[in-house]
Amino acid sequence: MKLLMLCREPRLYSCQRLQQAAASGGHQMDIFDPNRCLLKLSVNPPHFQLYYQANRNADPILLDKYDAVLPRFGTSSTKMGCAVLQHFAAQRIYCLNHANAFALARDKWQSLQLLLQNGIPVPSSFLSGCEFTAENAVRTATKSAVQNNVEQAESSLILKTLSGSQGIGVMLTEKPQSAVSLLETLTQAQISVLLQDFIAEADGADIRCFVIGEQVVATMQRKGQSGEFRANCHRGGVTEKIQLTQQEKQIAINATKAIGLDVAGVDLIRSKQGVLVLEVNASPGLEMIEKTSGIDIATQMISFIERKVTESVNIL
């Protein structure tokens, strides 16, 4: 097969591992930055074309057709990356995570709404309009946390920007006054943010599940450094192996399906209310979870693509 990965940083561990796994399977994989693409639509006959400019001084080249596309772009490339994905999907080329699902996963609030709509447990969360006062938003969120018997509910709340990754845009406020001040500042800057219960009993730990299709292929527990509530590895968190219950695995699979993804990193947290889904990541990193679990996730992803492409060919 001829594969295309959409990624701005080809040197990243995940990109290198997937390219190696593709080569081991006898496939060619190109890695292109979606922000360097030019999309063309023509009407007679209906036609989709894509040009790529490797650098500012290079002449654009018309790309050949690919058998499948792997999206691995970051939040700064979401809009153009999804446009490129849709361009390929319109040509009936298989995309490992479709544009609509990818964009949905990047919006923390809309993805939480859809998860709860599908019966998947999430932390109590609040999103206020720009004319709803920050003081009332924080008071309502804090009152709800007390009613839910959340530890330290009288003071602590999590604030999250609607887009962001690797722990960026996630803030812990230990006093209501701090939450009000921060929410007012972000609202004034026209940055949308949600409020969420702080799950103190998790002790700075969460669980990353790597889902491919309808299977959890690898897991790890992440724990933040002393004094750090975020468990993300990019924030200095440490990882270890962990065994999940069948119920926890099923929740991760259901969350992936609810968002409409084929591959996802699902973050879970164990609370007094049971296991909750914090987030569903459409482009989960491979490095720490492969090294922690000892599982070759990259090869499993390529094998999944092989099956999907074969199925699509048989259908056609």
UniProtKB/TrEMBL annotation:
One example GO MF annotation: ligase activity
Known cofactor(s): Mg(2+); Mn(2+)
EC assignment: 6.3.2.-
Domain ATP-grasp per the UniProt entry, residue ranges: 112-306
Keywords: ATP-binding, Ligase, Magnesium, Manganese, Metal-binding, Nucleotide-binding, Protein biosynthesis
Record Gene3D superfamilies: 3.40.50.20, ATP-grasp fold, A domain (3.30.1490.20), ATP-grasp fold, B domain (3.30.470.20)
Entry binding sites for Mg(2+) 2: 279, 281
Binding site for Mg(2+) 1: 267, 279
UniProt binding sites for Mn(2+) 1: 267, 279
Annotated binding of Mn(2+) 2, by residue: 279, 281
Cross-referenced InterPro entries: ATP-grasp, ATP-grasp_RimK-type, ATP_grasp_subdomain_1, RimK, Rimk_N, Rp_bS6_RimK/Lys_biosynth_LsyX
Cofactor binding note: Binds 2 magnesium or manganese ions per subunit.
Binding site for ATP: 160, 197-198, 206, 230-232
Entry similarity comment: Belongs to the RimK family.
Name of this protein: Probable alpha-L-glutamate ligase
Organism: Seminibacterium arietis
Taxonomy of the source species: Bacteria, Pseudomonadati, Pseudomonadota, Gammaproteobacteria, Pasteurellales
Gene name of the encoded protein: rimK
